[in-house]
Recover the amino acids of this structure.
């Protein structure tokens, strides 16, 4: 009996300390008087040393227009407005938008524009530099929107969940290498700025983070991003299949059947003294030059 009571007490205590708030409810941690909301990934950066590393990596110029995603209570924003000509910040939570406006107006500067909106739905401004401690749940759609963004920006310095950042910077042959790394490396160069432990945030997330720097490639590669990404889905969609069978199963039906010679070469219907690599290259010969160049550099290694 005493044992059962003890267990019940233990359960109650655990329920209090480790309770997960209902979806969309405030997580309970307070940041400058505001209760953070888990739904919006509100993990505020509380280590000024990391803020400095992000801003140093961005190599800001006084003439820069900076685009900040999710300013929160303004931990990055207050420094950005000191270093840039103009800062445009996109914040989904009206409470945070009001807070960052209040905090920054206290500095006497008037170069901050806060847009209360969802960055994934908003039409983006023209900017030189993008800086963000991103809510992790939008990492992937945000990155693809950034890659497709024209005209190009000078650089983006972004905080991601560590595992996502590792997939971004992965090299050929590494287990994390996939569609994300290929798409990314075609358009931009990505490097690690620093790793950030979870205790640097209020409230701490359940994962560690990494800051990466993204620099667009110059001259820009002109490909239709949708078309290109479709191609990558074929290449990486069936991880256990070879590139050859992936193409046979999907791409060929629409494109390759029109081209009998290529179709034969790919499917081996007409025996040729060619290596698999040459056959695939032949198929890829029907693609645009930039696409071929990128595919040759990864898919056939
Ligand atoms: C990880 S917090 C970063 C806050 C602040 N920059 C900092 O480092 O302390 C992410 C911020 O992005 C905001 N946010 C979440 N989803 C968003 C979206 N789709 N569009 C714009 N802002 C968003 C959150 O409300 C939150 O303020």
């Amino acid at each position: 009996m005493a044992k059962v009571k003890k267990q019940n007490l233990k359960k109650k205590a655990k329920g209090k300390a480790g309770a997960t708030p209902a979806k969309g409810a405030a997580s309970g941690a307070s940041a400058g008087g505001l209760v953070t909301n888990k739904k919006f990934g509100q993990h505020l950066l509380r280590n000024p040393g990391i803020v400095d590393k992000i801003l140093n990596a961005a190599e800001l110029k006084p003439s820069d227009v900076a685009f900040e995603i999710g300013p929160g209570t303004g931990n990055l924003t207050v420094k950005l407005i000191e270093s840039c000509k103009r800062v445009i910040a996109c914040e989904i939570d009206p409470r945070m938008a009001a807070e960052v406006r209040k905090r920054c107006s206290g500095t006497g500067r008037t170069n901050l524009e806060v847009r209360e909106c969802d960055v994934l739905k908003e039409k983006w401004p023209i900017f030189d530099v993008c800086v963000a401690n991103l809510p992790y749940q939008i990492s992937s759609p945000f990155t693809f929107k950034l890659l497709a963004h024209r005209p190009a920006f000078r650089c983006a310095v972004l905080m991601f969940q560590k595992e996502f950042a590792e997939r971004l910077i992965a090299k050929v042959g590494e287990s994390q290498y996939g569609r994300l790394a290929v798409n990314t490396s075609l358009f931009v160069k990505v490097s690690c700025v620093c790793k950030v432990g979870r205790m640097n945030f209020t409230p701490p997330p359940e994962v560690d983070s990494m800051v990466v720097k993204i620099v667009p490639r110059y001259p820009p590669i002109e490909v239709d991003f949708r078309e290109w990404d479709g191609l990558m889905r074929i290449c990486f969609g069936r991880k256990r299949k070879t590139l050859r069978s992936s193409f046979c199963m999907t791409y060929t039906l629409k494109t390759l059947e029109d081209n009998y010679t290529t179709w034969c070469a790919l499917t081996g219907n007409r025996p040729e003294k060619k290596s698999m690599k040459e056959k695939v290259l032949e198929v890829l010969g029907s693609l645009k030059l930039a696409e071929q160049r990128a595919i040759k550099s990864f898919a056939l290694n």
Notes: Confidence is low (pLDDT under 50) at residues 1-28, 250-277, 296-301. The first helix runs from residue 2 to 18.
